[in-house]
């Protein structure tokens, strides 16, 4: 995440508050208390406290898109890239529960967060269709993205609620999504259980 140390601290506290409350309505006083700073520090480090939610949502979407794309080193197959991407999202939600809960709460309703699904996932879907890797039609891209997004978020919920491990939830969902796109069961399972690269560092 870009910004000064104070801004990063404030943004981290804000993300946790948004995730816990399930709403974008957070007061400056609540934010200052959560970040362990005085109110003046909030105003000094935020150009617009009223737009903090949108700022964080946009940064989160951009950051995760870039990090996942940077983690694909050596993976050219769109199906492999999709399996990696889904599992990286689920693993990060396990490692950073507030990040995961923020995503679950707002990823389908906030315009900035919906950009997560409109970057590399769309490009890889199109490549997969054009190369006949996927057995779907170009007109089904939007529906396929809905399946990918909904399945990934549902896997995150299972992990955050302690119903599945991140490894099992991530691999199972990745395999099922690949099967929905036309891969056979054996190959889908192989791709969904292959060694997972580390998530690239953020900006």
From TrEMBL:
Residues 27-46 bind DNA. The chain crosses the membrane at residues 141-160. It comes from the Bacteria. Pfam families: TetR_C_40 (PF21306), TetR_N (PF00440). GO terms for molecular function: DNA binding. SUPFAM superfamilies: Homeodomain-like. Residues 4-64 form the HTH tetR-type domain. Keywords: DNA-binding, Membrane, Transmembrane, Transmembrane helix. PROSITE patterns: HTH_TETR_2 (PS50977). This is TetR/AcrR family transcriptional regulator.
